C-alpha cells in the first residue's frame, strides 16, 4: 500500500510541476471565428509548441466584433483569429485593436499585407476565400431541381423553402454576401433582390458555414456560404457541389487582430507570428480547412477553390469595412428583410 501512496504522491507532484510550468509560460485568451475543427487543431498545436495555456472561445465574426466593442474598457480577449475581414477593419477603425507589425509580414501575399496597411497594421490577412454556395446533388435529383449557376437563378420559384443563408448581424459570411450584392447590383436593386430571395429562404442561421452543413445533411437544398466551406463538406463525403456565381462574387480576407488592452500581449504576439508561418498554415488542410493561405510559402490545398477561375468583383474592403456603412446596411436589412423573415 505504501508504494501505491508514493506513486500517487509522485503523480500529484508531477501534475503540480506541469501546472507551474504552464503558469510560467502564461495564458492566452483567444476568440476563433473559423470552423471549430481548425480552431481546436491550432489551439492544441500552439499549446504543445509553446507551453502557453490557451482559453479558446469559438464565435462568429459579427458576434466577436460586438463582444470586443462591449468589453472595450476592460478587455477579456487578447487576440481574435479568423473570420471575415470587414468586422476586423471596423474594429481597427474604432481603435479597438492594436497596431502590430509582425516580422512575418515579408512572407505574406500582397492581399494580406494590403489588409494590414489599410488598417494601419491593426489587423492582417490570414487566408482568402470566395463567396458562392453549395447544393446537395442527391436532393436536386430527387426533387428534379436545376443547378443554380447565377445569383439570379436562386430566385426561381422551384427553390421556395430550399435555401439557407446566415444572418448578416451575426455572420461575417452573410455580411460579405450583402455587401457583394450591393456592389454588383446597387443598393436599392440588391435589397429588391434580397426581398425576392427571402421567399425561398427557410432559415437565417447564426453561423456562416451552418447553411451548407444543413445542405450536406439533406435538411436544405442550398447553402449560401464561402465556397471552401462547401468544398469541406464534399471532401467529408457529402453529396455537395460548390458553385461560383456567373455574375461575379465577392471574397473574404480572413483576418487576425490583437485586442487593445490585451492582458497577455506578449503571448498574443507569439500566436500572431506563429499562425502566420508557412508550417502552421500548411497544416490547416488537416482540419478540412480549404482557404487560400496568406503565407506565400504555405501549401495551398489541392481541393481549394482556385480564385483565378472565379469571376471576382473588386471588393471594396475599405467602404464596407467602415462602421457607419455596416450599421446602415444592417439596419436596412433588419427593416426590410429581417422583419419579414420566415
DSSP E strands, number? 10
SSE run? HEHEHEHHEHEHHEHEHEEHHEHH
Broad shape: globular
Biggest pleated sheet? 10 strands, mixed
Helical content stands at 40-55%
Q: What multimeric state do the chains show? A: single chain
Q: Helix- and strand-based class?
A: alpha/beta
- CA-based gyration radius: 21 Å
The CA-CA distance between the termini, in Å, is 67 Å
Individual helix count: 14
Strand content: 15-25%
Low-confidence stretches at least 5 residues in length (pLDDT < 50)?
Answer: 1-23
Instruction: Give the rounded overall mean pLDDT.
Output: 91
What do you see in this structure?
- It is a single chain.
- α2 links the parallel β1 and β2.
- The N and C termini lie far apart (67 Å).
- The protein contains 14 helices and ten strands.
- Strands 1, 2, 3, 4, 5, 6, 7, 8, 9 and 10 form a ten-stranded mixed sheet that branches.
- With 342 residues, the chain is of the alpha/beta class.
Briefly characterize the structure.
With 342 residues, the chain is of the alpha/beta class.
Amino acid at each position: 500500500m505504501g508504494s501505491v501512496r508514493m506513486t500517487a504522491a509522485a503523480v500529484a507532484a508531477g501534475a503540480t510541476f506541469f501546472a507551474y510550468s504552464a503558469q510560467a509560460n502564461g495564458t492566452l485568451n483567444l476568440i476563433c471565428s473559423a470552423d471549430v475543427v481548425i480552431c481546436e487543431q491550432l489551439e492544441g498545436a500552439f499549446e504543445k509548441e509553446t507551453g502557453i495555456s490557451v482559453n479558446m472561445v469559438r464565435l462568429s465574426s459579427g458576434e466577436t466584433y460586438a463582444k470586443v466593442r462591449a468589453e472595450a474598457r476592460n478587455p477579456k480577449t487578447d487576440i481574435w483569429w479568423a473570420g471575415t475581414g470587414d468586422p476586423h477593419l471596423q474594429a481597427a477603425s474604432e481603435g479597438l485593436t492594436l497596431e502590430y507589425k509582425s516580422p512575418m509580414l515579408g512572407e505574406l501575399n500582397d492581399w494580406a499585407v494590403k489588409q494590414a496597411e489599410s488598417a494601419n497594421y491593426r489587423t492582417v490577412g490570414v487566408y482568402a476565400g470566395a463567396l458562392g454556395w453549395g447544393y446537395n446533388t442527391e436532393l436536386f435529383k430527387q426533387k428534379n431541381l436545376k443547378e443554380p449557376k447565377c445569383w439570379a437563378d436562386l430566385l426561381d420559384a422551384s427553390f421556395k423553402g430550399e435555401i439557407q443563408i446566415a444572418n448578416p448581424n451575426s455572420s461575417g459570411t452573410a455580411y460579405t454576401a450583402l455587401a457583394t450584392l450591393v456592389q454588383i447590383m446597387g443598393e436599392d436593386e440588391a435589397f429588391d433582390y434580397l426581398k425576392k430571395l427571402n421567399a425561398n429562404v427557410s432559415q437565417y442561421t447564426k453561423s456562416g458555414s451552418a447553411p451548407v452543413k444543413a445542405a450536406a445533411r439533406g435538411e436544405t437544398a442550398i447553402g449560401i456560404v464561402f465556397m471552401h466551406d462547401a468544398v469541406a463538406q464534399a471532401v467529408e463525403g457529402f453529396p455537395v457541389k460548390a458553385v461560383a456565381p456567373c455574375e461575379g462574387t465577392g471574397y473574404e480576407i480572413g483576418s487576425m487582430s490583437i485586442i487593445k488592452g490585451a492582458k497577455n500581449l506578449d503571448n498574443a504576439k507569439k500566436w500572431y507570428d506563429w499562425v502566420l508561418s508557412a508550417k502552421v498554415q500548411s497544416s490547416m488542410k488537416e482540419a478540412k480547412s480549404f482557404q487560400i493561405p496568406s503565407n506565400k510559402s504555405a501549401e495551398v490545398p489541392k481541393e481549394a477553390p482556385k480564385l483565378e477561375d472565379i469571376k471576382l468583383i473588386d471588393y471594396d474592403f475599405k467602404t464596407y469595412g467602415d462602421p457607419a456603412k455596416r450599421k446602415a446596411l444592417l439596419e436596412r436589412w433588419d427593416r426590410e428583410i429581417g422583419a419579414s423573415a420566415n
